[in-house]
What we know:
Shape: globular
Distance between the termini: 44 Å
Radius of gyration: 16 Å
Number of helices: 1
Strand order of the largest sheet: 1-2-3-6-5-4
Amino acid sequence: MITAIKGIPVELVVREQTGVDALKRPIYAERIEVVENVLVGAPSSDDVTAALNLSGKRIAYTLAIPKGDEHVWTDTEVRFWGGRYRTVGEPTQGIDALIPLSWNKKVQVERYADEDSSEP
């Protein structure tokens, strides 16, 4: 029996600038967007070591993002499995036509906070 690979829905916290304050600093509003069919996997030991050495951040998971997704995944909060995560580094992306499956972008995330926690 052939089983299709299927990802999970994850919540992406999208920040949009809504204006500036009296000191000309940007003011942001946040909204949640659900991204369907995201694969969640364990990072390689090389990825964990490299991120720890370069940025001091410990990678918790690697996310595979479906083809056609246009969201910004740099320095973004992601929520799934009852936890809050923040992306680490820049996403890596392949050429759609050369990748046979449904995912062409890879993003690494670090643990940020538990879902029920009020503090990051």
